[in-house]
Amino acid sequence: MIAITRPTLLLNEKQCKINIQRMADKAKRLNVQLVPHFKTHQSSEIGEWFKGHGIENITVSSVKMAEFFARSGWSNITVAFPFNMHEIPAVNRMLKQNVKLTLFVVNTEVIHRLNEELEAPVNLFIEMDAGYGRSGVSTKDIAKVKKLAALIEAGHMTNLYGLYCHPGNTYHANSVEEIKSIWADVIQKMSAVKVALGSAGDSLKIRVGDTPGCAVVEEMEGVDEIGPGNFVFYDLVMNYLDVCTESDIAVAMACPVVAKNEDRNEIIIHGGAVHFSKDHLFDENEEKFFGEVVVLEEEGWSPILEGIKLVSLSQEHGVLSATPEVFEAIEVGDVLGVLPIHSCLTANLMKSYTTFNGQEIKHLESF
């Protein structure tokens, strides 16, 4: 086992590549294009692992991330976030480098500004809200969609590429069947919008992007592209949703044990909110927890340990609550593994990965 001296995000490279392979194979089997979301790993090296599966187009969550991956050689990038018009200069810089960009729009103001200030054309998705309630034009508001579509097509710098939906309500589903039901509803609503656009909708692509749905849904008729991101690592949320197995999770935080409190059967680790984020789940007793504990091994980690959970986080501290038996077995100086609740946020905070052979894989924020 490599030496761990401080909180370290371990990456199971083999499992990560298996996860990528599985999603790429599924996209081919269902005849949809995989346009993976790189917001989870944010790594140029991990990005290279996708190229062996024929992936040429990617998705990111910010213009800054698009710039990073453009420098890494990617030339067809979707920025999956309602476009911030203040970043038009950055978009123009990438367009000058022959990067093909696809942006999200949800209002007329941004479309006008793009046509006034862009120096080369871009593709646009109209982001749709099919029930999640975060951002996007409601699939019920056909009049607004038609207005946006007409304005985009009339613009000399904007081309209407498609309709995009992120059904984030799948993350709150109570079963795999509910996830499938949400997707069926999304596909029906998105297809109806496309039909309502008449001839303008004939060539439009429909893209749906969320890991729960992309992982478990088998009926994707009407969808042209999928854009999941979390699947590259998975995490406890995905495991609790039955979207992945525990063994599919490809990252774990390695945290040194720094103290023990015998009065409360609590173990203090170096690993807090600045490492994990404060995303949490609830156990069968409706008690909040922030991670599950595993034993680190030479090339991986054990199944989740019973009788111990990460129950509290402050900035640098993590508090583990343990049964007396587990408490006695753990010593100050041990290094424990903790599976994250939300791998995207944990990876963003940690800014790099360490493989089992000690290789450091850097992340956007570490450059």
Automatic annotation (TrEMBL):
Keywords: Lyase. Residues 250-357 form the D-serine dehydratase-like domain. One of its GO terms (molecular function) is D-serine ammonia-lyase activity. It comes from the Bacteria. The keyword DNA damage does not apply. Signal peptide: none annotated. GO terms for biological process: D-serine catabolic process. The keyword Hydrolase does not apply. InterPro entries: Ala_racemase_N, D-amino_acid_metab_enzyme, D-ser_dehydrat-like_dom, D-ser_dehydrat-like_sf, PLP-binding_barrel. Belongs to the DSD1 family. PANTHER family: D-SERINE DEHYDRATASE, ZGC:162816-RELATED. This is D-serine dehydratase-like domain-containing protein. The lineage of its organism: Bacteria, Pseudomonadati, Bacteroidota, Cytophagia, Cytophagales.
